[in-house]
Amino acid sequence: MQSPAALPEPTQPHLPAATVPSGWWAVCLCAGWCGTCGVYRPLFDELARAHPGVRFEWVDIEDDSDIAGDLDVETFPTLLIADGQRALFLGPLLPQAPVLARLLTSLQAAPGGAGAGGEAQAVFERVQAARGA
Predict the structure, then answer these.
(1) Where are the domains of the chain?
(2) DSSP code string of 18-85
(3) Is 3 helix (H, G, I), strand (E, B) or coil?
(4) 31, 76 in Cβ contact below 8 A?
(5) Closest by alpha carbon to 40, among 3, 92, 84?
(6) Taking the complete model, does pTM exceed 0.85, yes or no?
(7) Largest Cα–Cα distance in the chain?
(8) Which residues are CB-contacts of 5 (< 8 A; sequence separation ≥ 6)?
(9) Is CATH 3.90.110.10 correct for 22-130?
(10) Which end of the chain is less enclosed by CB atoms within 10 A, N or C?
(11) What is the Cα–Cα distance from 53 to 33, expressed in whole angstroms?
């Protein structure tokens, strides 16, 4: 699988964390044995540096099975995006940095959108509890 090396421009200027709107989360649900996830991890980490207003978390669903709960992850990587209060997206995503960047941008541009549902919200709340929200 080939992933683009160049990252898209960040959606927000590089400002100190205190001046950037907070609350957004991008959570990658992965598995240690997944080769695609291994290739995606460095891109995910680069996106975290490019988007300082978003909290990026990497969750291995086997090592952190209490976070995943009963969620049946069938395709890797699976991403959870939340605005700090509500899970807005939960699903598989192409393992390419520009795809996640575009998704974040579109969700941030449409505040008050529909949530991703109860299962996604429950996973988000477990991530917040486990990772010190």
Answers:
(1) 22-130
(2) GGS---EEEEEEE-TT-HHHHHHHHHHHHHHHH-TTEEEEEEETTTTHHHHTT----SSSEEEEE-SS
(3) coil
(4) yes
(5) 3
(6) no
(7) 38
(8) none
(9) no
(10) N
(11) 30
Amino acid letter, 102: R
pLDDT digits (tens, 9 = 90+) for 10-37: 433 333 333 334 589 999 999 999 999 9
- How many angstroms separate the Cα of 75 from the Cα of each of 6, 37, 119, 131? 24, 10, 16, 23
Amino acid 73 reads: V
Question: Which residues does 20 contact at the CB level (< 8 Å), separation at least 6?
Answer: 12, 52, 53
